[in-house]
């Protein structure tokens, strides 16, 4: 089959959607399919990074789109980048041969609509892989007014493409419920989480000690937030907790990654002169095992308004490593569901957004217990979300979608 993958990010970018789409492309090629990827020629977090406009990599035909790379400092910059991506993607898609299936992720927003229009004209199935829901996310973040003309127009466009999809991939039950409320049929929705990177990472004791030594963390109890820093994952209460616990000499907060809120964390640490906070950029895949293994307690944060809109995919790598985590978010959410599935409350802790005292209490309890051995129950739960289980299953869903065309 000819399969097109459409998303802003792809290899060698390191953001989560790029990594998952790269995994899927490899699996599709392994299964004998002809894979074309259309993505941006610039790095997601660092637009100064430039990738080849056209290349064949491991049997994957990659077509990359030029954008001005204005960055995320202002909303208008994002809108211009998105608009130019859309325009250049349209040009590329119309000159590509007919595809049996087009798999559309959700960056830039509503890109599945473009895939749907092209498929309607040329034929073939469309499978939106909903990594986040827009304009729902923009409304939840306060960027768009709910019920306004822009929001209603974008929602109409989004729902039009969803109703014409052969399959829709939702990441959890809350997202599936939102999709059905938008008119998507339950029989079209396939619910599966994005897999862990267990094929590439695992608990690394040597890498843990090397990473901690490199960054001055030897002997510290490390509380880590690793991944995308965005308004969907509000960190204000975590930063307030770090400020309150600044006198705990054994305790150190480590923020690793990037995103629009990363500089906010850096600025807070500098303004408050907090010596118990360190900020590091995204770590390359070859160092990711050591980086994630360096934590004694991982943080997973979900804003109350974003349940069913975004998904806490970082939690699967944490489970795979068997390291305790603290989920900060609403009780009715996927992260809280997973924490409840662990029989040991010290392994999967829960606190509410804005509850600084509760967050401090959970961290202090973990600090008192000290570093924990790798937890077999967490790893067993993580195995349900492994690459070897979920990636082949998604390939089968895509193959079934082609048969429906």
Structural key phrases:
405 residues, alpha/beta, Rossmann fold, 2 domains, 6-stranded mixed sheet, 6-stranded parallel sheet, 15 helices, 42% helix, Glyco_trans_4-like_N
How would you describe this structure to a colleague?
This is Glycosyltransferase family 4 protein. InterPro entries: Glyco_trans_4-like_N (IPR028098). It holds the Pfam family Glyco_trans_4_4. With 405 residues, the chain is of the alpha/beta class. It has two domains: 213 residues, Glycogen Phosphorylase B (Rossmann fold, 3-Layer(aba) Sandwich), CATH 3.40.50; 179 residues, Rossmann fold (3-Layer(aba) Sandwich), CATH 3.40.50. It is 42% helix and 17% strand. It has 15 helices and 14 strands. The chain has a six-stranded mixed beta sheet with strand order 3-4-2-1-5-6, with helices on both faces. Helix 9 links the parallel strand 10 and strand 11. Helix 1 crosses helix 15 and helix 11 packs across helix 14. The radius of gyration is 21 Å and the shape is globular. The two termini are 12 Å apart. The model has no long low-confidence stretch (mean pLDDT 93).
Q: In the residues, how many domains can be counted? A: 2
Low-confidence spans: pLDDT under 50, at least 5 residues?
none
CATH class of the largest domain: Alpha Beta
Q: In the CATH classification, which architecture of the largest domain applies?
A: 3-Layer(aba) Sandwich
Summarize the helix and strand pattern as letters: EHEEEHEHEHHEHEHEHEHEHEHEHEHHH
Quote the beta fraction: 15-25%
End-to-end separation in angstroms reads: 12 Å
Derived from helix and strand composition plus strand pairing, the structural class reads alpha/beta
Query: What is the gyration radius calculated from CA atoms?
Result: 21 Å
Major beta-sheet overview: 6 strands, mixed
What is the CATH topology descriptor of the largest domain? Rossmann fold
How many helical elements? 15
Q: CATH superfamily membership of the largest domain, which one?
A: Glycogen Phosphorylase B
Number of strands: 14
| Gross morphology | globular
Spatial order of strands in the largest sheet: 3-4-2-1-5-6
User: How helical, in percent, are the residues?
Assistant: 40-55%
Protein name: Glycosyltransferase family 4 protein
Pfam families: Glyco_trans_4_4
Domain Glycosyltransferase subfamily 4-like N-terminal: 18-190
InterPro entries: Glyco_trans_4-like_N
């Amino acid at each position: 089959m000819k399969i097109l993958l459409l998303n802003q990010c792809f290899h060698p970018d390191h953001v989560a959607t790029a990594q998952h789409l790269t995994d899927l492309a490899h699996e599709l090629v392994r299964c004998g399919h002809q894979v074309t990827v259309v993505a941006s020629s610039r790095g997601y977090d660092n637009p100064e990074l430039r990738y080849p406009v056209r290349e064949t990599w491991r049997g994957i035909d990659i077509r990359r789109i030029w954008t001005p790379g204005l960055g995320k400092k202002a909303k208008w910059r994002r809108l211009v980048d998105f608009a130019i991506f859309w325009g250049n993607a349209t040009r590329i898609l119309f000159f590509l041969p007919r595809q049996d299936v087009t798999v559309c992720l959700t960056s830039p927003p509503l890109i599945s609509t473009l895939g749907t229009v092209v498929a309607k004209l040329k034929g073939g199935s469309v499978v939106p892989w909903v990594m986040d829901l827009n304009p729902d996310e923009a409304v939840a973040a306060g960027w768009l007014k709910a019920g306004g003309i822009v929001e209603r127009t974008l929602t109409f466009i989004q729902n039009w493409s969803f109703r014409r999809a052969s399959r829709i991939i939702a990441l959890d039950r809350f997202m599936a419920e939102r999709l059905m409320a938008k008119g998507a049929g339950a029989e079209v929705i396939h619910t599966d989480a994005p897999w862990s990177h267990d094929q590439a990472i695992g608990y690394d004791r040597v890498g843990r000690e090397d990473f901690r030594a490199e960054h001055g963390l030897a002997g510290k109890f490390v509380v880590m937030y690793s991944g995308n820093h965005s308004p969907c994952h509000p960190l204000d209460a975590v930063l307030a907790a770090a400020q309150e616990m600044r006198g705990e000499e054994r305790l150190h907060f480590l923020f690793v990654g990037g995103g629009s809120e990363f500089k906010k964390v850096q600025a807070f640490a500098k303004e408050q002169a907090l010596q118990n906070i360190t900020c590091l950029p995204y770590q390359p895949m070859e160092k990711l095992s050591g980086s994630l293994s360096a934590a004694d307690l991982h943080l997973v944060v979900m804003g109350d308004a974003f349940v069913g809109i975004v998904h806490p995919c970082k939690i699967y790598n944490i489970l795979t490593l068997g390291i305790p985590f603290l989920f900060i978010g609403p009780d009715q959410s996927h992260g809280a569901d997973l924490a409840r599935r662990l029989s040991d409350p010290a392994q999967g802790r829960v606190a509410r957004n804005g509850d600084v005292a509760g967050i401090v209490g959970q961290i202090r309890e973990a600090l008192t217990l000290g570093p924990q051995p790798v937890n077999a129950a967490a790893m067993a739960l993580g195995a349900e979300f492994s690459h070897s289980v979920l990636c082949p299953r998604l390939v089968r869903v895509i193959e079934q979608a082609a048969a429906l065309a």
